[in-house]
Amino acid sequence: MAGRTGTPEGRKLSRRFGWLTVLGAILVLGGIVGLVYTGLATLTSMILFGWLLLVGGLVGLLQAVQSRGSNFFWLGVVVAALNLAAGIVVLRHPEGTAEALTMFAALLFLTGGVFRLAGSVVVRGPQFGWTLVQGAFGVLLGLLVLFDWPHSSLYVLGCFFSLALLFDGLGLIAIGTGGRQMVSMVAAATPEDQEETRD
């Protein structure tokens, strides 16, 4: 049977799920290290962000050159140039970029929380209590980050980055282990059971 782990296809599928589990474990480890060293995680996330902007700008510039003569040529060039310039600024001034992004995140939490609070009070829908708690949490988080700014820029972004790594890693581990269990369950099924399932 093609779905059984005794076959090359089954073993290959099981190995792929195993690699997903390994990748998830690496991400979880990176997330835990980042939560312990939030300053380093913030700096790392800014450097990655800068390189992503640079690579995105170069790719956009290549696409714009390939589509020269079209109506979107100059728009592509301008967007690519902005990405390149932003990437250079982020890489040259990661601390200042972290401060600016932390301020933006705090204002985003604050305004989002205020809108949720106002919306929950005005609408008073079935999720009134939950929306009220979400709004209050957003306002509180925004104020905490703002009151400790710019010092909060040393750990806020790194904490978010590390939590994202942690939860992505846990998700990959769940997918990998669940997939391997599914493959082993298919392998454990007898040919008679599989024939009955097809019938």
Automatic annotation (TrEMBL):
<feature type="transmembrane region" description="Helical">
    <location>
        <begin position="72"/>
        <end position="91"/>
    </location>
</feature>
<dbReference type="InterPro" id="IPR052712">
    <property type="entry name" value="Acid_resist_chaperone_HdeD"/>
</dbReference>
<dbReference type="Pfam" id="PF03729">
    <property type="entry name" value="DUF308"/>
</dbReference>
<keyword id="KW-0812">Transmembrane</keyword>
<feature type="transmembrane region" description="Helical">
    <location>
        <begin position="20"/>
        <end position="40"/>
    </location>
</feature>
<keyword id="KW-1133">Transmembrane helix</keyword>
<dbReference type="InterPro" id="IPR005325">
    <property type="entry name" value="DUF308_memb"/>
</dbReference>
<keyword id="KW-0472">Membrane</keyword>
<feature type="transmembrane region" description="Helical">
    <location>
        <begin position="130"/>
        <end position="147"/>
    </location>
</feature>
<feature type="transmembrane region" description="Helical">
    <location>
        <begin position="103"/>
        <end position="123"/>
    </location>
</feature>
<feature type="transmembrane region" description="Helical">
    <location>
        <begin position="46"/>
        <end position="65"/>
    </location>
</feature>
<protein>
    <recommendedName>
        <fullName>HDED protein</fullName>
    </recommendedName>
</protein>
<feature type="transmembrane region" description="Helical">
    <location>
        <begin position="153"/>
        <end position="175"/>
    </location>
</feature>
